[in-house]
Amino acid sequence: MNRRTLLKGVAAAAAVPAPALTRGGPSAADLNRFDTPGDADFPKVGGNLGNQNYSGLRRINPGNVRGLRGAWTNSVEGGLRTGNSQSTAVAVDGVLYIESALGNVIAVDGVTGQTRWRYEQTRGALTRRGVAVGGGHVFTKSNDNYVIALDQHTGQVVWERQINGYGNIEKVAVVYHDGLLFCGTNDGPRGAALAVDARTGEVVWHFWGTPGPGEFGNDTWEGDSWAAGGATPWIHPAVDPALGLTYWTFGNARGGNSSQDGSARGGQNLFANSLVALDLRTGAYRWHFQSIHHDIWDMDNVMSPVLADVRIHGRMRKVVVYGSKSGMYFILDRTDGTAPLGIVERPVPQEPRQKTWPTQPFPVQGGWTEQRVVDQPLGTSVPGDPNRAVPNYVRGALYDPHWDTPVLSIPGHGGGADWSHLSFSHRTGLVYTGFGYVAAAHSLTEAANGLRPPGEYQTGGIVAVGVSTNRVRWKRRMPYSLAHGNGILTTATDLMFIGQPDGNLLAMDACTGRELWRFQTGAAISSSPIMYRAGGREYLAVYAGGTSIPYGNSAPRGDFLWAFEIGGALGPVPAPPPPVIRRPVSGGPVEGTTVVIGRTATGATESFGVASMAPTHLRVPVGATVTFTNHPGNAGPRGVTQFFEGLFDVMLAPGESFTYTFTRAGEYFFNDPASPRSTGKVEVYGP
């Protein structure tokens, strides 16, 4: 396959000038587009087949939103406070269906909040992201690659089907349309997009993320690297019944020791990091767009694509919005993949050992977030600029290559928008997403997908972008990363709802981002709010359960399915301990007054690893003097740089020491200029 064929349409579109920013968009009457049932239901994850996460209901509006209170809450697992709850509820005919952190399915009455039925997993706990409802069934998954159909009214198993040979068919939300189930796969050496017969569970068609020999795109992989190339479609697709197409986003490429190693998989590596349009009945390839060629940063834009009909240059266009981790949206014509607002291929820095691709695509309007970490002087304000660099790392920009030396860049594989759910408002014509500032240091010394430096702040924000212009309308920084399941709902009354990892559900003005209301649910929210009508009343609902990403065990967990209405009887619950937003060091607190640089707690030899401070977490009272020593057995100079307060920055020869007296309570991170991965923290307690 030649590069000219792969980039067909992009170069021509790149010459289109950016239009002026205008307000407006399709009317709320278009909510039923993409075969969505009426406003009473929220029948699938994403709201409708276009993943628009939009409701035409109008009872809750800016004038009364402050009167929104809990109508009911259901602790669906009876008080569970562990696990990963990433599921978004769906509402059909006045009943909500939710999957718990254990992978169980619970049906809840939308008016009373009472459990109608529950299905207990028989194959162990499983992180899930949402059921599908259709044809009288509720569809879920389990471990061991099973798809399961439950009776919609009783929860009894109708059929189970094990689907092996296509990747792990476990985590991804199921999408139902007209007798077919569209199922993605995740976390495997090679994965496929699947269509399954909703009556029997039989596989109707499959499409591999990494093409095999003789298939279109196979020649974009060096040798047989395609066989373990990753590219799994680990988020649910969008469907356009009128065009007869499904739209899938495929994940990052793998190779060598990790996703950061491209040395043995030369080429563009299709269909990794790509949006692919497939015939919904046959799975036949129609077109694709690759947002990152030969990815070595785990920067796959695997977010559910959003479909919208908008006016561009005076002409109505059927578009798909694609993009997430890179902090850029690619607005594509969903009929053929061309770019009505322009996309250009720009040269990027090269690393021959990584076999990097010479160019990467950029929308001509640019991105919606920063794409280079900044060097903030030591001692400046904390937390300061959220995209600043932890000191002593080599700092880079998006798509700067790496080898054995860590290169710190942003948005990072855990930043940008990752897999939080977008919302497209028919009222404003804007697409909304929560995102994160989580810089990552990439190198082949990391076995996984990049180091999120200990001590960095993991914060985020919300951005609203015009779909007809690809220009930022407004952007607001928030105290937490909102990039992992923190979906957004917009409404016909110009409200925007999003949940935070501290348990607060927020209502904001969709036109300006101004906060209008907040409610404490009791646990972190890693799901999308929904709206539905039942019993003649209109409700807002959200599942608050929490997850380990990106805040580890510091994020509060729960099993709370909440519904809200104007004038509800339930108030907010006590706030749980908030997440710790700074990336932690390894190891628990140790009492003492000495830190040895370049050694692990039990290490007899010099180390340059992440935990190469002994101890990594020292705990002392206010007024304590701490001695930092470069171990006499180390080969050369090592040191300590305290950040971001800038209390000290010293280099020491082997055997030399430095002392510092801590006079104020707080937590003080430091790393080694000779090896910035080596990071420690002094926790100072007292008045």
Summarize this, please?
The protein has 687 residues and is mainly beta. The radius of gyration is 25 Å and the shape is globular.
What does this molecule look like?
It is a single chain. This protein is mostly beta strands. It has 2 domains: 3-75 and 84-385 and 396-566, Methanol Dehydrogenase, Chain A (8 Propeller); 590-685, Cupredoxins -  blue copper proteins (Immunoglobulin-like, Sandwich). The chain is 1% helix and 36% strand. The chain has 2 helices and 47 strands. The strands form 12 sheets. The chain has a 6-stranded mixed β-sheet with strand order 38-41-47-46-43-44, with no helix packed on it. β4 (95-99) and β5 (105-109) form a beta hairpin. The longest helix is centred in the N-terminal third of the chain and has 5 residues, at 10-14. The N and C termini lie far apart (67 Å). The model is unreliable at 1-32 (pLDDT under 50). InterPro entries: Cupredoxin, PQQ_b-propeller_rpt, PQQ_rpt_dom, Quinoprotein_ADH-like_sf, TAT_signal. It comes from Actinoplanes campanulatus. Its cofactor is pyrroloquinoline quinone.
